[in-house]
């Protein structure tokens, strides 16, 4: 059984060994979430590594990763539990006429008839506990946020037929948001907060190197330089959404697959659909703009 890292440096080293290159501010936020047993809310642009942090923390801590992917219309039963109605019905038919209505009701609302969803699984996970990822919570609606408050504040949930279920081991809980809408203050108050920005050039270079086997060092540097410049002004204004880390890594993999030795405007424009996911952004990466992005910066 693995234990909570003893220091921020230990956590940084553990995350790096798991392939996640965090900066010290992010590692501090994650370390405090572990020590204080508080949920951690990560906000930031898509593709900056929010989801990957939860995956890497699960690896570092030796805990099971449970993922709740949020979406518009997400209901409590999809997140917490629902009853196995088919099994309950079979039981009622089997004992019909032999037991009273009250006895049947008590029997069918037993834990063995529960279908556990991620929130309940996280609360009932045995030691060392679980890492629960509530991914893209901003895609769910406000009533679902209200439903989360009991879990986030007390690591417990109420099931009407059974009662209150409290955590066996407090789960490490990571919420992510792309800020498609603002979350309610009540959710934010129950969490530690961290804004996860795009990485600096050196951290992105380390990430690309670790994630793309066979990538030549010179090409890795070119990828990191190009994406870093693309996200900076005045270039970023030309695009609706600049690439995240996920796109940088995927682009590097594509370049290796194409046996690319060095970046040039033709390669860049030919693979623009990996860096960008919107037609307007692909069109905005013209040959002339690619040439300007590849031009060495003045000393």
UniProtKB/TrEMBL annotation:
CDD domains: AAA. Signal peptide: none annotated. It holds the Pfam family AAA_5. Residues 36-209 form the AAA+ ATPase domain. Gene3D superfamilies: P-loop containing nucleotide triphosphate hydrolases. One of its GO terms (molecular function) is ATP hydrolysis activity. InterPro entries: AAA+_ATPase (IPR003593), ATPase_dyneun-rel_AAA (IPR011704), CbbQ/NirQ/NorQ/GpvN (IPR050764), P-loop_NTPase (IPR027417). This is MoxR family ATPase. It comes from Ramlibacter algicola.
């Amino acid at each position: 059984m693995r234990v909570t890292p003893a220091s921020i440096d230990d956590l940084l080293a553990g995350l790096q060994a798991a392939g996640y290159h965090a900066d010290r501010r992010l590692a501090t936020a994650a370390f405090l979430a572990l020590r204080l047993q508080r949920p951690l809310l990560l906000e930031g642009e898509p593709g900056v590594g929010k989801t990957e942090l939860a995956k890497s923390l699960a690896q570092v801590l030796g805990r099971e990763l449970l993922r709740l992917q949020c979406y518009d219309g997400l209901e409590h039963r999809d997140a917490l539990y629902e009853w196995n109605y088919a099994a309950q019905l079979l039981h009622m038919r089997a004992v019909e006429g032999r037991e009273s209505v009250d006895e049947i009701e008590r029997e069918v609302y037993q834990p063995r008839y529960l279908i556990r969803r991620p929130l309940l699984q996280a609360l009932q996970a045995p030691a060392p506990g679980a890492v629960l990822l509530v991914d893209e919570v901003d895609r769910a609606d406000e009533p679902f946020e209200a439903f989360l408050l009991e879990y986030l504040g007390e690591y417990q949930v109420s099931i009407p037929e059974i009662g209150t279920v409290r955590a066996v081991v407090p789960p490490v809980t990571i919420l992510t948001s792309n800020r498609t809408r603002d979350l309610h203050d009540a959710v934010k108050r129950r969490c530690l907060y961290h804004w996860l920005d795009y990485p600096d050039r050196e951290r992105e270079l380390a990430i690309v190197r670790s994630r793309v086997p066979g990538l030549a060092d010179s090409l890795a540097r070119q990828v990191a330089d190009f994406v870093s410049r693309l996200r900076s002004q005045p270039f970023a204004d030309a695009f609706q959404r600049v690439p995240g880390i996920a796109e940088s890594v995927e682009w590097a993999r594509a370049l290796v697959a194409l046996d690319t030795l060095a970046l040039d405007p033709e390669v860049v424009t030919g693979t623009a659909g990996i860096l960008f996911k919107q037609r307007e952004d692909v069109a905005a990466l013209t040959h002339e703009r690619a040439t300007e992005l590849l031009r060495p910066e003045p000393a």
